[in-house]
Structure formats: C-alpha cells, structure tokens
C-alpha cells in the first residue's frame, strides 16, 4: 500500500489538490500496478510564515507577479 505525503509551503485550492491526488494516484497505478483504492495521500499545507529557506521566511520574500502566476497555474 503506497503512502504519499505532500508538503506545500503556502496553500492550494481544493481543485488543485484534487488534481494532484488524481495525478499521483494515476502514476502509482500505472508505474507500480497498485489498485487506486490502495493509494493513501496526505497533503500538508504550511503557512509561509512557518517555512523558511536560505535563512528567510517565505512570508518575507517578495514574489514577482510572474512567480505568483506560475504557482497558481501549476497542474492546469
């Protein structure tokens, strides 16, 4: 039984998370021959004030409009 944990800095919409779950499940079914009912997925969202990289909170970083659009369109 595959267990998948996905950690996101920030948040995703319900539709985005549903798409991620569909994609990951399909990949495990195709690549490992697992039954879709055997695939277990947990999505954990971390607020950008609770996640840091390179010594800086993500909440303190300024995203360019291009970065924000790319993030919003992931998987679409």
From TrEMBL:
Source species = Sphingomonas vulcanisoli
Instruction: List, alphabetically, the SUPFAM superfamilies matched.
Output: Tautomerase/MIF
What protein family does this chain belong to? Belongs to the 4-oxalocrotonate tautomerase family.
Q: Which residues form the 4-oxalocrotonate tautomerase-like domain?
A: 2-61
Record keywords = Isomerase
Give the matching Pfam families.
Tautomerase (PF01361)
Q: What class of enzyme is it?
A: isomerase
Which InterPro entries is this protein grouped with?
4-OT-like_dom, Tautomerase/MIF_sf
Return the EC number.
Answer: 5.3.2.6
Signal peptide positions on this chain: none
Recorded GO MF terms: isomerase activity
Task: Give the protein name, as stated in the record.
Answer: 4-oxalocrotonate tautomerase
